[in-house]
Sequence to fold (1898 residues):
Amino acid sequence: MFGLKTDWELDPPPRYFTLEDYEGGVARWCPGCGDFGVLTAVQRICREQQLPPEKVVAVSGIGCSSRFPHYMKTYGFHGLHGRPLPVACGIKSRRPDLDIWVATGDGDCCSIGAGHWIHAIRYNMDMTVMLFDNAVYGLTKNQTSPTSPVGFKSNTHPRGAWLPPLDPLQAMLGFTNVSFVGQAVDWNPILLHAILRQAHAHKGLGFVRILQRCPTYSGHVFQDLQKSPDQLLLLTHDDGLPMTPELDRLFPNKEQHDPSDLGKARIAAANHERIPVGVLFRDPSRPIYDDFTNYGLGTSVEDKLDSINAELDRFAI
Amino acid sequence: MFGLKTDWELDPPPRYFTLEDYEGGVARWCPGCGDFGVLTAVQRICREQQLPPEKVVAVSGIGCSSRFPHYMKTYGFHGLHGRPLPVACGIKSRRPDLDIWVATGDGDCCSIGAGHWIHAIRYNMDMTVMLFDNAVYGLTKNQTSPTSPVGFKSNTHPRGAWLPPLDPLQAMLGFTNVSFVGQAVDWNPILLHAILRQAHAHKGLGFVRILQRCPTYSGHVFQDLQKSPDQLLLLTHDDGLPMTPELDRLFPNKEQHDPSDLGKARIAAANHERIPVGVLFRDPSRPIYDDFTNYGLGTSVEDKLDSINAELDRFAI
Amino acid sequence: MSTHVAEAAGTGSGSRTTVPQHIIEIVSDSGEGAQKAGQAFGAVCAKSGRGVWTVEIIPAEIKPPARSQAGASGIRIRVGSRTVTNMGDEADLVVAFNEQVLYGRITQHAFRKGTNILLENRWATDDSPEIRELYANALQEFREKGFVVHELPLEQECLKHTSNPRVGKNMFVLGMLCSIYGFEVERALEEAAFLFRKKGEKVVALNHELIRAGYAYASDHIPIQFFVPARPNPGKSIVVNGNQAVGLGIMAAGIDVVAMYPITPATSVSHYLGEAFHRVGGLLHQAEDEIAAIGFAIGASYAGKTACTVTSGPGLALKTEFLGLAVMGELPLVIVDVQRGGPSTGLPTKVEQGDLLASIWGQPGDSPKVVIAPATIEECFHFVITARKLAEAFRTPVIVLTDANLATGVQPIPRPNPQEEWLAPPIDQAPWDKKVLAYDWDVESGASPRPIPGQPGGEYVLTGLSHTKDAHVAYDPDSNRVGMEMRSRKLAALQKALKPPKVFGDESGGDLLLVGWGSTQGAIEEGVERARGEGQSVSAVHLRFMSPLEPGLEEIFRRFKKVVAIGIHYSDPEDSPIDKPNRRRSQLAILLRDQTLVDVDSWTRVEGQPLSPGTIYDAIQDHLGRLARKES
Amino acid sequence: MSTHVAEAAGTGSGSRTTVPQHIIEIVSDSGEGAQKAGQAFGAVCAKSGRGVWTVEIIPAEIKPPARSQAGASGIRIRVGSRTVTNMGDEADLVVAFNEQVLYGRITQHAFRKGTNILLENRWATDDSPEIRELYANALQEFREKGFVVHELPLEQECLKHTSNPRVGKNMFVLGMLCSIYGFEVERALEEAAFLFRKKGEKVVALNHELIRAGYAYASDHIPIQFFVPARPNPGKSIVVNGNQAVGLGIMAAGIDVVAMYPITPATSVSHYLGEAFHRVGGLLHQAEDEIAAIGFAIGASYAGKTACTVTSGPGLALKTEFLGLAVMGELPLVIVDVQRGGPSTGLPTKVEQGDLLASIWGQPGDSPKVVIAPATIEECFHFVITARKLAEAFRTPVIVLTDANLATGVQPIPRPNPQEEWLAPPIDQAPWDKKVLAYDWDVESGASPRPIPGQPGGEYVLTGLSHTKDAHVAYDPDSNRVGMEMRSRKLAALQKALKPPKVFGDESGGDLLLVGWGSTQGAIEEGVERARGEGQSVSAVHLRFMSPLEPGLEEIFRRFKKVVAIGIHYSDPEDSPIDKPNRRRSQLAILLRDQTLVDVDSWTRVEGQPLSPGTIYDAIQDHLGRLARKES
Ligand SMILES: Cc1ncc(C[n+]2csc(CCOP(=O)(O)OP(=O)(O)O)c2C)c(N)n1
Ligand SMILES: Cc1ncc(C[n+]2csc(CCOP(=O)(O)OP(=O)(O)O)c2C)c(N)n1
Ligand code: SF4
Ligand code: SF4
Ligand SMILES: [Mg+2]
Ligand SMILES: [Mg+2]
Fold:
């Protein structure tokens, strides 16, 4: 049969990867789109960690942000709207060697994909998930998203959105087996990079919600926030996002926040005065489904054959 | 065209409804199934509230518990697995006069229906939702459900469930616009009835998770709990489930719990020592989507025709 | 100034060439206002009694880079002295804001030898040598291709009136076009006054100045002038695209609830409804996904409200299970599927007719339902009303298949005259006669009256399980069989009520019959007309009812030597390694072959483009040629 | 004791009637162990070299009330001196634990005049007068129907050995059956020893005692004795049902990941895999829903692991969108659809073949994929292996359509001999030759090599958007067309590799040809055989490849005067108001008519039951009769 090969070959000579090794085609987002910054951050982390490009898989759904895989020079899966997480889990299930980055939008993850979101958090597989939250449906040209603020005028709600916006952080911190929740903003590359790096280093599902500017359709939503960093509250901790002089300078408001405490994380997420950024929650001890799904990976063809014959014999007469 | 009628006729003579007026065909659950008790509780509430049977709609998905509508002598919608909530919201959207009861299972609501669950909570339409949580897939004969405890042996996990069970309460208390969360057990009819009545009286989506015995497949899961009511913690409050001498007698452990405080509700739900029963959270001030969806309900045919003509004229040349 | 222009137009300056129809394009980077200018020009044409079809040229990205081939953004306006039914073949005249976007249009085969191209020439003197070179090369290439390029100092002229010519030049072009096609400049001024009415007088005045300047410039400097005569008395008209027509149809059909999830190219139906639906007291619900959208609509329908869901291919896929429930539970429901390129995410902004069989047979188990397909923008309006009527009469879901071509095409259509009876709500709250069962099927038609929550005595449980007449779950052989028969019977009954389709061309038969459906009617009939004009024996039949099919097809087909199904969906080409036994025919051909047992061939295109009369004409030549070879 | 028995069996006590095959049922309330006894008896028959088919009789509820018609629970065992391929027609001998459950079977047409019924008679003396009356009435009714009722003091006899006869009487019945059919009692003792091996010696001993008692009782008191001769040398066999065969096939095919969501009647595949899959290192993933299940499988496949998802109708509906993506992205994937009654939730536990067209054409846009249908339990095993092979060879999803009939039928089949090559993983981690593009289509076959994550140099992005050979998103006309051609070509290439199906009966033609597919083969061929035995000119063809269809069908069909598609899916009956132009034919007939243009008729049943040889025989008579009338 086609392309069959039974054994693995590994590439012996050591390689050094530059940023270029992760840079795919020219990214085609609108000028000023927050997605560019996230792409750069991920490419930088890949280089820092010297991830072999062939071992990286960028998985996405459909949306502006879900174009992400096309702009990486790695493997990629640009699938269906709302379904990146099941695909990513399937990829990871039997390939512990692959490094999975999931790009998903607020519509993709929190609307059509919400059912998978809950369950992917519960599976807690070892991957990094980036929620590009621009509070709008970008690709389909300006419809209300579940995270659009009340009063947000879009093509489907020209007189303003009516329902209170879904808060991804508070939701996720209620999901069973949640193990890492961070929040960043696209316009602060230092913070973004630092949090994504933490999420990536986390063993389990590292979920980062990124407040992402969409100048084309929802520019006003984060405009104030961008201008006044004092509306943000930086959460730092030695076991979370460690404080650095740079971060210290960038954020007028900060707070020590121990990310190992789920109750405190929920309180931090529910903060109505300032928007928390940083690592809200981290529990590396949560079970990861990988430990279950990897079972039997190394079974040899001979052993399989023996077991199948034994199975057949169980039904023999 | 068939059956068209443009005006409403209302039934003038006052009627008194007995329990029988709500009792449909013989309920066909297994002997000892917890579903019976819930059915009885709902029928009792219907009678107490003297809900005209033609104004009651029981909506369900697929599962043992979703057989519920067939056993009511009201209108009913026994739809698709996982999808009772969108249907219920659609029914309610333009029929404020109808009284909606949703019966859903742990698989139906928390697995295949999880995406709708989040969003129905956010829509917060005025209806009562009962999660029959038997920690197993009953109708399909014993598969693991998202709420099955670790180690639970089912036909799909004969060596025991692996993932930590999803906690519907903690999840829901993180969902935006949650307005009423209660928890009951099927084997305590007094508690069950009291909580369902509160949920039903609540303006908005009254969600009650019912720990429900399935003697056929998951009998052991709640066996201890049933025998030792001291593993339960009764939450009472004047603004929640008011204490009664009966409840006082039935529950050795109780606590005052103010259900208007979301933070406290989350803490109560996360209690690992005792399982909380009662009203965990209630906020009658949350916006209900009905207020939006009911817009324009009374528009007369003449006004519609005028508006349509005006619309056509907007495009006229 | 190039002399090619005068030669091509074949006229001296000042003398106007009369043409029965013309195709004009304005092509630009996105955001340069080409579409606004084109729509205004289309309105001028329409209001002056011409037949018009405008269609936007949409780039793949939301904001593609400037001067890129993939970025071609703009509009095509086809104007004629008859009703225009399609976007036509190659353009006759093009205004382009840069040369690179033209390459994008060339890939789409939008131009022919002799196409007049009015090209902004500021790039010839750009600061960047690279751009200058690109421009020069393009100019040469275009001329080699036989395009008649006319260089225009567009921005330069506009700079005389505004400091920001990038924003203003579209109105300059509008003025130019009025001059070229002999419309009074006042018509354009009116449109601009309307367009900019909310921006204040100053803006209106500036744009008026630009229009006048364009008009004057063209009159003085552009030696090509055309005249498209007006249609005889077109009557009261409205100018809409197919999605707006659907939205208006939804309101006129008395539909109370539209539940949807955004998806291109269906979303603009909800954009329109978002603006207007509340004015008729309707509810537009944006659901969390397509499954919830149809579930919500089904709930509303169960509760006695007329409901609709609007989607496109991937959304239709997600609605499959609920569609089956609507069939089984016998709920009236209107599903509008604005088809786009498939399979999967495919070509989201482009046209295809690939959802035909998925609509008819896509649901597991036997799921008879009505599927209809409007052929024109006007029918987009009326078919929604028909759909609602059929849905309620037969207690069944009805799928309305439109496509991206109809959705985005804009044209003047006769103004519909909404009727009060269209709006009558199905809801009835009178006590239910208990002797009537919840599914009291009429064995001739499969129809039955429907109890509505609120009706005392009508209480029943809708279930997707096999059930009896009185809505009780039943697993016995007879109940299952009878239910299936009754649900199927609806289609038999409806089919008996339909008339055979009319033959366009020669009713009595001939060599070749083309069979089309949906948005392709205009192009097919125009292609057939041209061939018939040359004496060829070719006719066409256009189908609107896809499930059930209109009657009498076999009789019609048998009168022709060859029958070919035409469509914008896939069929295997007839070359190696494809042969007769392994060839996969088009979805329409499959339907027709099953129904008629006539050896219906298929000719299709899946290029994301509407069919054009010219390609149909070519297909006719090809098939007639083959027929002749076979006969000789 | 009734004397009817002796008369009916036509033998005196002690003399054995030899029969080529017999159908036995044990019917009871649920939970009375009828199925266990029947399976054990089936095993005795199989191990003694008889052909066997057993199928469970399943009530609609999980625990229906006792003594109810809807509660009929039990088992049918068909035993024969040839390979048994279906559950047959009416039963020859029935053991019933109460009279009410027999009504449930009568509705299913399970008995005929002369069927021997061995009926527990404790109800005749029940405390409740109501029950006594019901029993007496039933007895009379059954005898009037021509059943040969033999009353049995079942529990009374068992009480001699156990205090809880409700639990023990099934083994008593097992002993009885061994006596009636002339098997040595030791065979039954062996089965019981195995069945109760985990319950301890005491339990085994008690059950042995009951078996011996039943054996002795029957030998002494039941004057009917049959003998079904053994098959000649059936070879090494295993006894499995179709879902176990699928599960074993999944393991033998080297499938690494099965992602599913529970759904009747597919779930038992995962029940079996839940037990066994980890032994071959496989992963069974129970996903949160069907969409996630196929998404997970697709992810695994993308990552180079052989993956499968197993479902039934409503689940298939939910997988529609992802199926389209697998086609577009060209991912190998095996989808097993265990068909059940539809549409919608339909008849969850019962058989139908209604997902044929939804599998082939159910996805919006053109979605060519392979669809195959095993006809036997043995093929359930082998077709999974074929499916994996085709999926990888052509880089395509493959749907395997089985059904509830195959899923629950149990029979001895030749023991498969798994091959190492079946297990070879597709994964390859060697550096990718960069000159080879991600979709480097072979124009003859549409196939292409597939880069797997981990292969340096193979990096590409799988997308559901229209794309080029090198996996780049492309909206141009040619890329879209070429991609569609290449994906379609796979079916043409595969079809060329297939052989025409064999004709069962007369290859050279004749009056009537029945065309079946899937699980109906056994019944159809048995019906045809019977008719041919009577000299009638009827043959049958059975299809296994549904997409593409096997070649040569038209040639075969043209040799027969009439061709009829047979299946367990809906087609309109041919009576008023149905007429030729409005008749909706069966899904199979539609496929065949399109492909062959032969006027293929359809004869189908949608009663939730497998087809039986007798109904096929009747259908043959009907069609031959009509043919004769037409010719005369
Ligand atoms: C099944 C399906 N439904 C709908 C769509 C249309 N669609 C594409 S992207 C999108 C939403 C995009 O919003 P978001 O996920 O927030 O991503 P963004 O574009 O804002 O980055 C929608 C509705 C689709 N492609 N498939
Ligand atoms: C789309 C679809 N998938 C799967 C099924 C099969 N199914 C029916 S009920 C059920 C789960 C039942 O579990 P739960 O919701 O917990 O209800 P319970 O029976 O325990 O009350 C499943 C998987 C179905 N009917 N439809
Ligand atoms: S529309 Fe918004 S999110 Fe999309 S690319 Fe443009 S700026 Fe970014
Ligand atoms: S299986 Fe369990 S949940 Fe279902 S009816 Fe029986 S006891 Fe109740
Ligand atoms: Mg977004
Ligand atoms: Mg359950």
In short: The first strand of chain C starts at residue 17 and ends at 18. Residues 201-221 of chain C form the longest helix (21 residues). The domain at 503-631 of chain C is CATH 3.40.50.920 (Rossmann fold).
